[in-house]
Specification:
By secondary structure, the chain is of the alpha/beta class. Helices cover 41% and strands 13% of the residues. The chain has helices at residues 4-9, 22-30, 44-57, 82-90, 95-107, 127-137, 155-163, 175-183, 205-216, 230-238, 260-268, 291-295, 311-323, 349-375; strands at residues 15-19, 34-38, 63-67, 143-148, 167-172, 188-192, 198-199, 221-224, 243-246, 274-277, 285-288. Helix 2 (22-30) links the parallel strand 1 (15-19) and strand 2 (34-38). This is Monooxygenase.
C-alpha cells in the first residue's frame, strides 16, 4: 500500500485521517498515515495550543490542518472585518430560530446557559475566520498540508500556502467541482461520495471516484466517503485514486475524545441511521439522525438558515454536547457516514491502521489469485 503521494508527503501509507482530536492526529501519523486536524471549531488562539501539542508529540511525522471556506455563504461579498461581519450576520438570525433551538434543548433536559454557549458566534465557516487559522498553521513546519472542506479556496490563499512550501487539498462531490480545483492549482483533489460523513454531495463513491480521477488526471485524487476498511481502500486504488481520506472511523478509536455513550450510539447505528441535513451548518451534511435533525425538517417548524447563520443557532447545541456529552446524544451534532454500519468496537488507532493494511493486502491477493487462475 504505497503510492507516489506517499513519497511526496513522506508517509508510509496513503491513509489520511480527518479528526477534530489532536491525539488521533498524532496516533495516525505515528502509525504511518497522515493525521489532519479539523480547525473549524477552534479560535486562532486555541488552534495554536492544539498545534503546539501536536508538534511536541508527533515526532518527525507530518500532519495537516483542515479549514472550511465554502464557495457560497451569507455575507461572503461583504468587505468587513471579522467583528463587523459577525455583527451583520447576528442581525440576520431570526429570534424565532434561537427560541426554537433553546426550547428543543430544554425539552430534552439540556441546560442552556446564555452566558456560556456558542449561539450567535461566528467560527471558522468563512474566509474571514479561516484566514487566521491558515496563518497559524503555516507557522508550524510539520504541518505540510492545508485542506479546504468546502469548495475551492481563494486564489491568493492558495498562492500564499504554496509560497510557504505547503500543499493544498480540497474536497469535491462532482467532476465539475474537481476541475475547478485543478484549474486553481489545488495539489490534491479529495473526491467524497454522498455516503460520507460531514458535508457531502449526492453521488455515490463508486461512481464518483473514477469520474474525478479521469477529469483531473494526472493530478492525485484521494477517495473519501465510505472508507472503513482496507478492502475499500483497495477498491479506491484500483479505480485510480492515490489514497483514502477517512473520517468516521476515527470517532471509534481509544484516542478519540468521544465518551463510551457517544461511541455506543455509533455501534448501535446502522447505515440507514444517517441523514443529509442542513440543521447544524446550513449546508447538506451527513450525520446521525436524531431528534434535532428530525425537528428541523418537521413541517411547521423553522427551516434551517444558510451557512454560517444556521451554526450561529445550532452552536448552543454543539456547546452543550461538549459540556454534557452523555446527556445530549438525542440532540447532538454527530457527523458520520453510512460506514457507521460497519463499526462494532472501539480500537486503538494503530490497530486500525494495521488492520486496514492487512485487509488491503488480502484484497490485492485475491485479485492476483484471480488473474493467475485466468491465465492457467
Amino acid at each position: 500500500m504505497h503510492t507516489p503521494l506517499c513519497d511526496q508527503l513522506g508517509i508510509e501509507f496513503p491513509i489520511f485521517a480527518f479528526t477534530h482530536c489532536r491525539d488521533v492526529v498524532v496516533a495516525v501519523s505515528k502509525a504511518g498515515g497522515f493525521g489532519v486536524l479539523g480547525a473549524v471549531g477552534f479560535t486562532p488562539e486555541q488552534l495554536e495550543i492544539e498545534l503546539n501539542w501536536i508538534d511536541e508529540n508527533i515526532g518527525d511525522h507530518p500532519y495537516g490542518v483542515d479549514i472550511v471556506i465554502p464557495n457560497k455563504y451569507e455575507g461572503m461579498d461583504a468587505n468587513m472585518s471579522t467583528e463587523e461581519l459577525t455583527k451583520m450576520l447576528q442581525s440576520m438570525v431570526p429570534q424565532q430560530h434561537l427560541d426554537f433551538a433553546k426550547k428543543l434543548l430544554a425539552d430534552h433536559g439540556v441546560p442552556v446557559d446564555d452566558a456560556d454557549n456558542n449561539a450567535l458566534q461566528l467560527l471558522g465557516w468563512t474566509e474571514a475566520t479561516a484566514t487566521p487559522q491558515v496563518e497559524i498553521a503555516l507557522t508550524h513546519p510539520k504541518c505540510t498540508l492545508i485542506a479546504n472542506a468546502l469548495g475551492t479556496p481563494p486564489a491568493d490563499m492558495i498562492k500564499h500556502i504554496h509560497d510557504a512550501g505547503r500543499m493544498v487539498a480540497a474536497l469535491c462531490g462532482s467532476p465539475a467541482q474537481a476541475l475547478k480545483h485543478a484549474q486553481a492549482d489545488i495539489d490534491i483533489i479529495i473526491a467524497q461520495g454522498g455516503e460520507g460523513g460531514g458535508h457531502c454531495g449526492e453521488v455515490g463513491s463508486i461512481v464518483l471516484w473514477p469520474q474525478v480521477v479521469k477529469a483531473v488526471a494526472p493530478r492525485p485524487v484521494l477517495a473519501a466517503g465510505g472508507i472503513g476498511s482496507g478492502y475499500q481502500i483497495a477498491a479506491a486504488l484500483a479505480m485510480g485514486c492515490q489514497g483514502a481520506w477517512s473520517g468516521s472511523q476515527w470517532l471509534m478509536v481509544e484516542e478519540a475524545e468521544n465518551t463510551p455513550v457517544q461511541q455506543a450510539a455509533y455501534v448501535n447505528a446502522s447505515s440507514r441511521d444517517t441523514v443529509r441535513s442542513r440543521s447544524f451548518t446550513g449546508k447538506p451534511c451527513r450525520m446521525l439522525k436524531n431528534d434535532w435533525t428530525e425537528a428541523w425538517q418537521t413541517e411547521g417548524n423553522p427551516e434551517p438558515l444558510g451557512m454560517p447563520l444556521q451554526y450561529m443557532v445550532s452552536g448552543m447545541a454543539v456547546a452543550a454536547t461538549s459540556k454534557y456529552p452523555n446527556e445530549t446524544v438525542d440532540v447532538a451534532f454527530n457527523p458520520v457516514g453510512q460506514v457507521v454500519g460497519q463499526f462494532s468496537k472501539v480500537e486503538k488507532t494503530s490497530a486500525v491502521i494495521d488492520r486496514w493494511v492487512q485487509e488491503y493486502l488480502e484484497a490485492s491477493g485475491r485479485l492476483n489469485d484471480l488473474n493467475e487462475a485466468a491465465t492457467v
